[in-house]
Amino acid sequence: MAWTLLNLIEGLKDGQIKFFNPQKLDDPRYDKLPLSIRVLLEAAIRNCDGFYTKEEDVENILDWQQQQNKAEVVFTPARVLLQDFTGIPAMVDLAAMRDAVAKHGVDPSLVNPKCPTDLVVDHSLQIDYSKCAIQNTPNPGGGVGSNHSQNPSRPAPSRPLSRGSQCGGQQGSCSKAACSDLPASSGRPGGSVQQIENTPLLCPFHLQPVSETETALKNQEMELSRNKERLQFFKWCSNTFKNVNVVPPDVGAVHQVNLEHLSRVVQVTDGFIYPDSVVGTDSHTTMVNGLGILGWGVGGIESEAVMLGQPVPLALPQVVGCKLVGSINPLTTSIDIVLGITKHLRQAAIAGRFVEFFGPGVSQLSAPDRTTIANMCPEYNATVSFFPIDQVTLKHFKKTNFSQEKLDLMESYLKAVKIFRSYEDPSEDPQYSEVIEINLSSMVPQVSGPKRPQDRVAVSSMKEDFQSCLDEKVGFKGFHISKEKQDIRIPFLHCGEEYQLVHGSVVIASVISCTNNCNPSAMLTAGLLAKKAVEAGLVVRPYIQTSLAPGVGMVTHYLNTSGVLPYFSQLGFEVIGYGCATCVGNTSPLPEPVVDAIKQGDLVACGVLSGNRHFEGRLCACVRANYLASPPLVVAYALAGTVAINFEQEPLGVTSEGKEVYLRDIWPSREEVRETEEDTIISSIFKDLRQRIEKGNMFWSNIECPDSVVFPWDHKSTYIRSPSFFSKLSKEVPAPQSIENAHVLLFLGNNVTTDHISPAGSIARVSAAAKYLLSKRLTPREFNSYGARRGNDAVMTRGTFASIKLQNRFIGKAGPKTLHIPSGQTVDVFEAAERYQKEGIPLIILAGKDYGSGNSRDWVAKGPYLLGVRAVIAESFEKLHKNQLVGMGIMPLQFLPEQNADSLGLSGKEKFTLAMPDSLSPRQQLTVKTSDAKSFAVTAMFDSEIDVIIFRHGGHLRYVARTFL
C-alpha cells in the first residue's frame, strides 16, 4: 500500500488536535464500509506498529467485502471496563508483577496498565437489614385518599410518628427503621402533593420518607466486614496505579456507569482524537453500541491482555444491516419496539456477526431506546448492535456531561472521518453482508392475557378478543359465559355513589416499573398521559383499586422531577412502596360492594398491570381476567373502566361538561416524551450520578489502605494472595524447553467446556479448596464462593477441574478425580498435580473435540498452568480458549486430521516426550513420542509469530514483565 502513518494525519482546531484520516487512503472501498468496520479500520491505522498490528491488517479491513469471515485481524480498543469480580484477578496480577520487577532492581511504579482501565465496584449489596416488608400493602384506590382512616386494612395511628419510632404494629408493618415526622400527602385530587427528592425510601404504609441512617449504616457495616480485604485492595489500586480508574461502591451498576459517565464517544490523548471503543468483562457491554461506541464483552484473560497492551484478535466479521423503515404507531411504546426488534433478530440467525442499524426509522428512536436495543444483543447472539452517531445522539449528549466545545469538536471529527450518519440520506448507506428490513409500523401496541403472558392481543382487537373469551369454553383464554348472561349489569353503592359492573370491568389497575418496564420512556409516557387526562377533566372511578409501584427510588425521583407524579396521584395512582406487590398477589382486599357485585353477576372482572405475572386469580381470587400492559395502557384502561373498548372508535370518558375525550386526544407524542426525557430525566440522572462520583461516600472514604508502591500482601489472607506466575522470572527469554516423560493429568473426551475447567459457584465441603480453607481455620459457613475468592490463586488452583460433571476417562464416571499413574491411586485432581510437581514430572492433558468451548473464565488457563500442565493435546480447540492457553504459556497441540487418542492406541498411562525445536513457527508440525515406542505428529496451534513470541516468554504476563526489565 502506498501510504505511511504520517501522510494520513490531519488537524482540527487550527492543527491543535490531530487525527488519522482513513479517507486520505484515497480508496473508494472506504465509503462502502459499514461504519462499525470503519472504526476497526481507524484503530488498525492508528495502532499500526508492524508487530501487533501490521499493514496487511489495514489492507484486509479495507478489503472487508472480500475478506469478511476469512481474514484474521486485531482490534485495539481505547479502554477496558472491568467489574470488580473480574477486576480482582487482573489487578492482583499487576500487583504481583510490581513485586517481580522490583526484585530485579526496576522501579515498580513503572508497572501500570497500558490501556486505560475503568473498574466499577458494583458488587451486590446483601440486605441483612431492611426497613419495610411489602405484605398486605394498603392500596388507596382511584381518587380516594391514602389516609389510614379510609383504608379498613390499616387503622390510623393514634399519634404522629416521630423519627425513631416504629410504624404500626400489625402484619405488614414497618420493621427496623422509623418513618419520618413529615406530614403525609392527602392523596386527594387537588390535595397537597408529597415532594420526593433524590431516591427516597418510603414507608409503603404511610407514604412518608424514612430515615436511611440505621439500616443503610448497618448494611454497609456488614458489607465492609464481608468484603474488607477486597475493598482495601481496590482502594490501594485506585491510589497506586496509573491508567486505572476505580469507581467506588454505591455509585451504580457497571453498565449504567459506563453509559452515563465513562463513555466518551471520542477520545483525545496526547493531542490526537479518535473514536471511543471498549471491551468489557460482561456480554452486556454492548449497551454502549447504542451511543455509537464500538465494544463488546470478553473474558477476564482477554481483558487482562488488552490492559497490558495487546489487541483483541478476531475474524473479520460479517455485518448485517438492519434497516428500520415505517412510522411508529403513536400508541406503541419503547418496550414494544425493543421486544419487536429483538424478536425479528432472534429469528434471523445472526450469531457471531455484527449488526448495524440504518434506515429512516432509526431517527425515530431515542438514545435510551437504542441502548436498550443494544443491551438485548446477547439475546440474539450478535457480537455488537451498532447505532452510528447522528443528530439524535448529539442532542442526547447535550443533556449529559458534554460541553458545547466538546460536542462541536466531536461532530467535526466524526464528519471528517465519515463515521457520522444522516439516516434520512440513503446515499450514505454502506454495503452490508446481508440486509434485514424491519417495518416499525408493524409493531402495534399489545397486551397479554387474560390468563397467560404468551397470549398476545393487539390493543386494536381487544374488544373483539375479550368477547371471544366470554364465548369460548373454559380453557387458556375462555370463560364460557352464556349469551343471555353476557350483557348483565350489576349496580352497587360505593362511597354513597351508585356504579355498575359488567363483564370486562376493570377493578384493579397497577402501574409497575420492574424488569420489563425499566426504560424511563414507558413510565414517563404513563405520567404524561395522566397529566393530560387530569387536564382534560377525566377521572378514574373510585372503586378501581389503583397503585403505583416503582421498581426503585430513582423511578419516583424522575417522575417527580418531570412533574408528572402529582397527576398520577390525582388519578389514584399513589406510590405504595418499592418491591413486588400486585404481581405476586400482594393487594389489599377489594371493597366489599365490588366483590359482592362480581359474585352476584358471576362477572369476569379484570385487572390490568404493567408487571410480569398475571395468571388467573393471582391478583385477586374474584378477578378472573388479568392483562399485562404497558404503563400508559394501564392508565388508559383505568380511565375507560373496561377492557372491552375500541380506543379508536370509543371515548375514554366524558367530562363534566359533556365532552367526549378519546385516547388519541391525550396520548403524548413520542417527540413530547423524548423531549421531557432528555430535558428533565436524563439531565437529572446524569447530574445526580456526577455528584455522587465527585462527592464520593463516607463508606468508601473511610476505608484505609496501604500507602506503598508495592502491595503489602497479608500471608494470612484467604481472599487476596500474590500468585506464583512470576516465580523464577529471568531477564532473558529462556531457551525452548522440551517436555520429557510427561504424565497425563486428565484423559478427557469431546466437548470439555470452561464450566468443567474453571472454578465457579460454591465451594464443596469435600473439595481440595475446602481442605485448604479448613486448614486456615475457616468454617464451612465462611467458605463463600470461588467467585469471591478469585484473588487467591491457592483456592482457584484447587478449584480447577473440580466440577462434579467432569468426565475423566481414567475414572469412568463423572467427578473431580483423576488417576495418579505412578501409585495407581484415585485422588483429587489438585492432589495428583501436587504429587507430580513434587516428583518433578511435567504434565499434559489429552482431550477430544472442541476443548475449552463455552464462556470465557479468568482461571480457565491460569488454573491448568499452576497445576503444572505444559501442553494440551486435543482433536480441536475452541479458538478463544486456544488463545488463552498460549497467553499462559501452555502449548495447544492438535492431532492430525482423522487422528485421535483412540485411533493412535493411546491409553493415557504412557509417558509422553515432545522435543522442542530451537525455533518455532505458526502451525508447525511436531513429533510426540511415548514410553511404549509409539510416535505421532501434532500441529502446534500458533496462529501468528506473535503467538510464538508470547509462548516462548511463558505467556502474556511474563512477556510484559520482561518489557520492564
TrEMBL record:
Q: Which UniProt keywords apply?
A: 4Fe-4S, Cytoplasm, Iron, Iron-sulfur, Metal-binding
Q: Which GO terms describe its cellular component?
A: cytoplasm
Cofactor(s) for this UniProt protein = [4Fe-4S] cluster
- Asked if the keyword Cytoplasm belongs to this entry, the reply reads yes
Family matches, as PROSITE patterns: ACONITASE_1 (PS00450), ACONITASE_2 (PS01244)
Under the heading Pfam families, the entry gives: Aconitase, Aconitase_C
Give the similarity note: Belongs to the aconitase/IPM isomerase family.
- In Swiss-Prot or TrEMBL terms, this protein is called Iron responsive element binding protein 2
Q: Which organism is it from?
A: Takifugu rubripes (Japanese pufferfish)
- Source species taxonomy: Eukaryota, Metazoa, Chordata, Craniata, Vertebrata
User: Source gene?
Assistant: ireb2
